[in-house]
Amino acid sequence: GESVGLHLPTLSVQEGDNSIINCAYSNSASDYFIWYKQESGKGPQFIIDIRSNMDKRQGQRVTVLLNKTVKHLSLQIAATQPGDSAVYFCAEDYGQNFVFGPGTRLSVLP
Amino acid sequence: GAGVSQSPRYKVAKRGQDVALRCDPISGHVSLFWYQQALGQGPEFLTYFQNEAQLDKSGLPSDRFFAERPEGSVSTLKIQRTQQEDSAVYLCASNLAGTGAYEQYFGPGTRLTVT
């Protein structure tokens, strides 16, 4: 998988603003995608998923957009809250397992 | 209900020691996955079980790594003759379905430090 070492891309947003986290995936045959949130010292936690026959899916305060033409996923978080501060990973279905992207650290400023 | 649990949560091993990491998946979950997560990186796939059958072990980095799930529930990841590069968080995940293409529920991980 890709590696960005210790220096994760970081997105800083003001509390209450919307956040957009982007991810490029590699396998055009992937059928299923998940966004995970990982807080320090914890395992990844499911946020939202989308299948390749859709281009948009909404959850509570979160929306995932899928652009298969350019192999791009995005996660939109509405009205970002301090509790949203974490590292966010996209993951693509690779047959029997998932391949995770390098992650983006979301920092919510007061 | 109970989620995926892993033990120990932290393990310090001297280089050359063997370690065993345990995963208790969610009851009834067919599939079980092990991932390795280095500091600042995303999880990387190690191996996958469907019930007791190990269907994919392509991600195991060397023959020092061995995983088993003898009764189709609890799984153990064993690392022999640990090296410093084995230092990482080892994550276990499970899901109900017989394939990977469904949400995976992750445990908290075991942080292994090899000194």
Summary, kept brief:
The complex is a heterodimer of chains A (110) and B (115). Chain A is an all-beta fold.
Written account of the structure:
The complex is a heterodimer of chains A (110) and B (115). Helices cover 0% and strands 54% of the residues of chain A. Chain A is mostly beta strands and 110 residues long. In chain A, strands 1, 3, 4, 8, 9 and 10 form a six-stranded mixed beta sheet that branches. A four-stranded antiparallel beta sheet of chain A has the order 2-7-6-5, with no helix packed on it. The radius of gyration of chain A is 13 Å and the shape is globular. Chain B is 0% helix and 48% strand. By secondary structure, chain B is an all-beta fold. In chain B, the strands form two sheets. In chain B, strands 2, 4, 5, 6, 9, 10 and 11 form a seven-stranded mixed beta sheet that branches. In chain B, strands 1-3-8-7 form a four-stranded antiparallel beta sheet, with no helix packed on it. At the A-B interface, strand 3, strand 4, strand 8 and strand 9 of A face strand 5 and strand 10 of B.
Number of helix segments of chain B?
Answer: 0
Please bin the fraction of helical residues of chain A: under 10%
Biggest beta sheet attributes of chain B: 7 strands, mixed
Tally the helices of chain A: what do you get? 0
User: What Rg of chain A, in angstroms, do the CA atoms define?
Assistant: 13 Å
List the helices and strands of chain A in order: EEEEEEEEEE
CA-CA gap between termini of chain A:
34 Å
Helix/strand order of chain B, N-terminal first:
EEEEEEEEEEE
What is the rounded distance between the termini of chain B? 37 Å
Whole-number mean pLDDT of chain B: 93
Query: Which ranges of chain A are low-confidence, i.e. pLDDT below 50, for 5 or more consecutive residues?
Result: 1-6
Chain pair forming the biggest interface: A-B, 32 and 27 residues
Q: Can you count the beta strands of chain B?
A: 11
Helicity of chain B, in percent? under 10%
The outline of chain B comes out as globular
Broad structural category of chain B: mainly beta
**What oligomeric state do the depicted chains represent?**
heterodimer
